[in-house]
Amino acid sequence: MSAFEVEQGKLRTPFWPKTRAFDRLSESHDWKGYASADAYLEGGLEYFAIRNSTGVFDLSPMTKYRISGPDSLAFLDRLVTRDMKKIRPGRVAYAVWCDDQGQVIDDGTIFHLRDGEYRVCSQERHLAWFTAAAIGFDVTIDEETTRVAALAVQGPTSFSVMQNLGLDGIENLKMFGLMHFDFHGEELMVSRTGFTGDLGYELWIAPGKAEALWDALFEAGKFLGIRPIGTYALEMARIEAGYLAPYLEFIPAEETVRTGRSRSPFELGLDWLVDFSKPVFNGRRALADEQRRGSTWRLVKLDIEGNKEAHHSYVYARKGGRMINIGFITSAMWSPVCKQNIALGSVKTPHGKPGDTLWVEIYYQREMHWSRVMAKATVVDGPFWDPPRRRATPPAPA
Amino acid sequence: MADRYDAIIIGAGHNGLVCGALLAKAGKKVLILEAQEQVGGAAITRKFADGFSVSACAHLLYQLQPQVCKDLDLSIDTVADDMATIALDSAGQHLRIRNGAATGLNDSDARQLHAFHKRMARFSELLRTYLNKTPPRLANGTKTDVVTLARLGLDMRRLGRKEMRAFLRLIGMNIYDEVEERFENPLLKGAISLDAVLGTHLGPRSPNTILTYLYRLAGNHGKLSTPTGGMSGVTEALAQRARDSGATLRTSMPVKRIVVDNGRATGVETDNGETFSSWIVASNADPKTTIMQLVTPRYLETGFVRRIDNIRMRGNAAKLHLALDGLPVIKGIDKKDFAERMLIAPDADYVERAFNPAKYGEMSADPVLEITVPSFRDPSLAPTGKHVLSAIVQYAPYGLREGWSDAARDTLMNHAIDKIAAYAPDIRQRIIAAEMLTPADLESEFRIGGGHWHHGELALDAFLFTRPVSGAAQYAMPLDGLYLCGAGTHPGGGISGAAGRNAARAILDREKTT
Question: Quick check: ipTM above 0.90?
Answer without folding.
Answer: yes
